[in-house]
Amino acid sequence: MAYLIRPVTADEWKRLKELRLAALADPVARVAFHQTFEEAAAQPAEYWQRHTARSDKNGTTLTLIGEGPDGSWGGMVVVRLVEGAEVPQAEVVAVYVRPEHRGTGLSRELFEAA
Known about the structure:
Blueprint: E1 4-7, H1 13-25, H2 37-41, H3 45-56, E2 61-67, E3 73-81, E4 90-97, H4 106-113
Antiparallel strand pairs: 1-2, 2-3, 3-4
Helix pairs in contact: 1-3
């Protein structure tokens, strides 16, 4: 499957919230996040709007999604720029690929883009 790897935009906060909650509900993936499903699900809309807008404003955190040809989001990677480094550096702080998209090469594409 061919994926479009692109940054999430601020107006896509509902879709990002759904993907993040799916990651936190996945028993295999949730160990990779610093937040529980319950904590994330309890956040108000404003939290998700701010969280998504961070990536859309050329800040220090960027969320990239893998979008399938049908418009579905198969996964995401979140990278944070390391401030103060002599050489530009970024660190991967979160990765998630939906079970039905695993084994398709999406995770490789997300890491390459990150």
